[in-house]
Every structure is written in C-alpha cells, then in structure tokens.
Amino acid sequence: MVEAYVRLLCPECTKDWESTPSDLPRHDGTFHCPNCHASRRLAEFARTDRDLQTLKGLQ
C-alpha cells in the first residue's frame, strides 16, 4: 500500500518539501520548520488547500 504525502511550504523562509501525514503532528498542532525553525500551526505550512485536506483526512 502506498502512503499519501502532503506538500509543505514554510511561510517565512519559503522552503518546500514533502512528508507523510503519519510523520507530522496534528494539523492544529505546533510545527517547526526544519530550515529556519519558524513555529506555527502545521495547517499554515500546507502548500495548497488540497494538501491541508489530505492532512486532515489522514490524521
């Protein structure tokens, strides 16, 4: 079975990357950018609305 992934984009440093929902905290939990260490709700890192819906649906 292939696991889904979500695309993330840091609103501060604009680093973009992909991750599986199981490797991330809940969408309303605090997340830290691995590049600049900005701290925000994970939902704010979702690159598109579709990525956010995927994240919410699989958690």
Ordered list of secondary-structure elements with their pairings:
Elements: E1 6-9, E2 16-19, E3 30-32, E4 39-41, H1 49-57
Antiparallel strand pairs: 1-2, 3-4
Would you kindly provide a written description of the structure presented here, covering whatever features stand out?
With 59 residues, the protein is of the alpha+beta class. It has one domain. Helices cover 15% and strands 24% of the residues. The protein has one helix and four strands; from the N terminus they run ββββα. The longest helix is centred in the last third of the chain and has 9 residues. The model has no long low-confidence stretch (mean pLDDT 93).
The strand line-up of the biggest sheet is 1-2
Number of helices: 1
Q: Evaluate the radius of gyration.
A: 11 Å
Strand content: 15-25%
Euclidean distance between termini CA atoms: 17 Å
Mean pLDDT across every amino acid position = 93
Q: Could you spell the SSE succession in H and E letters? A: EEEEH
Which regions are unreliable across 5 or more consecutive residues at pLDDT < 50? none
Q: Residue share in helices?
A: 10-25%
Total beta-strand segments: 4
Number of domains: 1
- What composes the largest sheet? 2 strands, antiparallel
Which structural class do you get from the secondary structure elements?
A: alpha+beta
Label the overall shape: globular
Question: Characteristics of this structure?
Answer:
DUF7836; DUF7836 domain-containing protein; two-stranded antiparallel ribbon; 24% strand; alpha+beta; globular
